[in-house]
Design goal:
Layout (H helix, E strand, L loop, with lengths): L1 H11 L16 H9 L10
Length: 47
């Protein structure tokens, strides 16, 4: 029963935690502000 409850909670409250030292998978607050103001789709190419 506890496993079902944990699974249900995890599906309702999804979040990620960035454990890298450089926080390379985390967007800063200023970056989030800039992205919210964009009017078009942004494409990022990683090589």
């Amino acid at each position: 029963m506890a496993l079902v409850a944990v699974n249900w909670l995890a599906s309702m409250y999804h979040s990620r935690i960035d454990f890298t030292n450089e926080k390379r998978f985390t967007l800063s607050k200023p970056t989030k502000k800039v992205l919210q103001k964009l009017d078009d789709v942004v494409q990022v190419d990683v090589f």
